[in-house]
Amino acid sequence: FPADQDPMPFGVARMTQDEAIGRIDDFLRATPELMAIPRETPESSLRVRHPGYDVRSVLRDPGVAFPRALLVEAERDELIGRLSDELYSFVGACAQGRIRREAPGWVERWKTAGIEALLLVPV
Q1: Which helix H or strand E contains 104, and what residues bound it?
Q2: Distance between CA atoms of 30 and 4, rounded to whole angstroms?
Q3: What region does 26 belong to: left with phi over 0, alpha with psi -120 to 50, or beta?
Q4: For the whole prediction, is pTM greater than 0.90?
Q5: 10 Å Cβ neighbour count for 51?
Q6: Which of 80, 99, 114, 119 reaches 20 to 30 Å from 108, CA-CA?
Q7: Which of 2, 84, 13 shows the shortest CA–CA distance to 35?
């Protein structure tokens, strides 16, 4: 998520990674929230917090989980079409049924934005 747009899970501002790990059961029961990230957000302004995996590799290289820079380069080299002005993320540590319930609304949002294809990066 962009540093200036902390989604404040469960109303907790600046939740730490350790706090997120401690609340994994809460995340698993929560409805996943889709976070729109402006494509021009520099990597230095991105933050990661995820209760379900070790985020150290993402802290070293954000492209491990959010390959924005590679996609921008592929767009520039005309290997792919135009990227959306917004890229998206969500905490996947949640019940799969909850994702299935939210996904149709997300798909409609993306269709309305003219997005024709998605790259999902599971971490």
Answers
A1: helix 96-112
A2: 22
A3: alpha
A4: no
A5: 23
A6: 80
A7: 2
CA distance 7 to 2: 9
Gap between the Cα atoms of 96 and 13, Å rounded: 26
Burial class (CB in 10 A: 0-12, 13-18, 19+), 66: buried
* Rounded Cα–Cα distance for residues 103 and 77 (Å): 31
Which among 1, 82, 79, 73 has a CA at the least distance from the CA of 41?
Answer: 1
For the stretch 4-36, pLDDT in tens is 999 999 999 999 999 999 999 999 999 998 999
Torsion-angle region of 11 (φ positive above 0: left; ψ -120 to 50: alpha; else: beta): left
CA-wise closest residue to 66 among 79, 93, 84, 48:
48
CB atoms within 10 A of CB 65: 17
